[in-house]
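note to self: dont lose this again. the chain is below, predicted strucutre after it. 278 aa total, dont forget to put it in the shared folder this time
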Amino acid sequence: MSRRRTKTFWGVTGGAGALLLGGLGFVGYEAVSADDEVCCALPEPLYNVPRGPDGEIDVASQSVETSVLTGHDFSLHVRPGGDAADWEIADTGESGGVLRAKGEKTVEGTRYFKFRALKTGSARVVLRERDGDRTMTYPIEVKDNIQGNVVLSDPEAGYSDLPQPEGSHRLADDFEGTVTVAPGRQFSIANRYSNQPGYTWRIVRQPDGTVAGLESERPYVAGDPAAARQDWYGFIARAKGTTTIELFGCYRCGYHDRPVSAESRRFSVTKTLTVVVR
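---
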């Protein structure tokens, strides 16, 4: 659902520049001098990356492998959508002295948790819902140098949805249960969810093509692509019969098709819709 652009960037060191690796790849940003003043910024688009309210690198919620350089700040965020303020830090990752938590800030509904990378090593930061059971775990690697491909990509930004299908009748606002339609009818079913932690959805069981057809696996999106949203999937009823469709939501999996951690497996979901044409 997002566009990827890559460039090669070699020989980055802690004193000359910085790279951040999210779950979707490396992200580059400006070279920084010893006194933390920006000194040698390269032209766009290489360094056009998300930043937090204090200029730190802002890590996308779907990041599952995050690497930062020593001496630099980064933030983890929860975007608006009804319960952004209900998230808190469960583990600051400070036990090994690799990271230091630098506080929290809420700007226009987005909640930022800020950290400083102190020395090389590994740490783990965990965010959790105060009144729920969901968590977001970030394994952090702090390094003296990073080299590799630079990928400017964020699953929560730059999403381009399809236009709403003409003549499609909205039947339900959740992708579960049973709907009944007449042959020849165009209809849409919504997948309603909160995308704050970052879900990746895909159809894993197509409808029986003799009964109903899926117009596109890319939905028409209503709401906020990064928060509370409704993805409307369009279908056409073809002939009398019954068919089942399954939609899988991979929790914080980045571009992986299947869960990549125990946390992903726990909070990933499958929604099942039964369509009756008669």
